[in-house]
User: Which sequence fits this backbone?
């Protein structure tokens, strides 16, 4: 932010010189998987919202609009005949985040909500406040959304508290996945179950839109057009792992290596070439074994296939052939001299 502010001030000829923040390394923000709702959770959430927030959240879920774009919608932006929703502004600004006007197709499930909103709204805004003015960033729609999630049972779990022990200064609490009736093990009082809402923001409704589309088999390029991403690469990097069958055809090739893995990890390796794996039994093998015992070549178990050792053994055998007819002691002596 400091780097951007200094660059803008320099372009406006307010400051001069090198940007002091140009050599700083930006802090790496960890990327987390986007939070989203499952298809069966969407109607449960909409049923728990108030009459004013229900069409607003439904538009966010089925059209993938941002918070400022929702609040800045006007009646003239809705074309039910062609089923198009034109996104022109964000809050009171006459432009959006992408600095362009774009039309978003209206889903069939969203039409009843928009029809009811067009009839109920009295001013030019589609989703105004109770006094008819535009909603601002201070609107607590995200908090009301999480409250509706808790009421609909879309939670991470339940925290069971003992209010009697809490008043006594020795609080007792238990975390469970359900809200069944439980009693305190200390005072036997009925525990009070409090829902632990799921981590979900208003912007996560936009992630839900992409998830529902991908689960229905829509291609990534169409999802990028609906979400109005400037680059389809953004859509791919964010939602590619949610595509059904993504990389499954490639990862399923691994079971084809079961036979090879069993041979490598379990079965002992067999020599491929018998000539390299071990010495062939021949007329001189006994002499070579005697040379080993005499110390001509140190016995190295498991290295019989090495070329240098094989050459040493063959040299011993060659010397033995040259001295045939002599005594065995003379043969061994010549073999030792030749090896040295």
Assistant:
């Amino acid at each position: 932010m400091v780097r951007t502010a200094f660059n803008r001030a320099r372009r406006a000829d307010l400051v001069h010189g090198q940007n002091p923040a140009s050599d700083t390394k930006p802090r790496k923000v960890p990327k987390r998987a986007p939070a989203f709702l499952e298809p069966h959770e969407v109607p449960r959430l909409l049923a728990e919202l108030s009459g004013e927030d229900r069409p607003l959240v439904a538009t966010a879920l089925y059209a993938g609009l941002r918070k400022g774009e929702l609040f800045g919608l006007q009646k003239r932006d809705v074309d039910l005949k062609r089923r198009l929703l034109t996104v022109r502004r964000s809050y009171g600004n006459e432009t959006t985040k992408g600095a362009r006007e774009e039309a978003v197709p209206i889903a069939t499930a969203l039409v009843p909500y928009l029809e009811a909103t067009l009839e109920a709204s009295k001013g030019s805004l589609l989703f105004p406040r109770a006094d008819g003015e535009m909603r601002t960033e201070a609107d607590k729609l995200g908090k009301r959304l999480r409250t509706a999630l808790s009421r609909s049972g879309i939670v991470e779990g339940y925290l069971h508290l003992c209010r009697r022990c809490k008043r006594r200064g020795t609080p007792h609490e238990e975390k469970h996945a359900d809200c069944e009736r439980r009693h305190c093990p200390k005072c036997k009082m009925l525990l009070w179950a409090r829902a632990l809402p799921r981590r979900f923001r208003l912007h996560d409704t936009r992630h839900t839109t992409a998830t529902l589309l991908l689960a229905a088999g829509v291609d990534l390029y169409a999802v990028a057009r609906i979400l109005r991403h400037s680059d389809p690469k953004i859509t791919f990097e964010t939602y590619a792992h949610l595509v059904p069958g993504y990389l499954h055809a490639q990862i399923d090739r691994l079971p084809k290596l079961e036979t090879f893995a069993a041979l490598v990890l379990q079965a002992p390796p067999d020599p491929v070439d018998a000539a390299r794996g071990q010495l062939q039994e021949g007329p001189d093998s006994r002499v070579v074994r005697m040379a080993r015992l005499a110390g001509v070549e140190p016995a190295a178990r498991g290295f019989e296939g090495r070329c240098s050792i094989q050459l040493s053994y063959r040299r011993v055998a060659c010397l033995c052939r040259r001295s045939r007819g002599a005594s065995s002691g003379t043969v061994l002596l010549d073999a030792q001299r030749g090896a040295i």
